[in-house]
Amino acid sequence: MIDIRVDKRALERKLRDLPRRVERKIVNGATRKGANVIAREMRKRAPVRAASGNPGIDLKFAGEGEFPRGPGFLKKNIRARKVKDRRNNGATYRVGPRGYAFYGLILEGGSRYITARPWMRPAFDAKANEAAEAVIDAFWDGIEKELEKL
Fold first, then answer.
1. CB 131 within 8 A of CB 4
2. Cβ 36 vs Cβ 144: under 8 Å
3. What's the pTM?
4. Rounded Cα gap, residues 98 and 105, in angstroms
5. How confident is the model at residue 58 (pLDDT cuts 50, 70, 90)?
6. Which end of the chain is more exposed for a tag (fewer CB within 10 A), N or C?
7. What whole-number distance in Å separates Cα of residue 88 and Cα of residue 108?
């Protein structure tokens, strides 16, 4: 998983005039935009298993207690989710596969049985600057919007 953290201390002067609720809304919204930039790139780079040529395997209907994982399952389950920030000085979003798509983490780092096939880290490296720009733009847009309301 890749964590994206934004520290709001740099914007403290501007945000001091805004109510805490509005401040939190701006920080969360801006951080979410940056996390979504990374998530979109991860979806593009996520490995996709080729569909089985075996007509006896039906990917849509798995047996009882099984979960169907057809081609593209990993790609469909990449999300940016907000996680609790214990320090209460910003917003933290976790970007990566969720739930039954946990094997994406194994593909990323490898195991003793398979070699690593990184796809999350290269996605982050490719879009880190664009994500930072999206966060900064969203911060300023949010601040301007809320200051107009005052």
1. yes
2. no
3. 0.74
4. 10
5. very low
6. C
7. 30
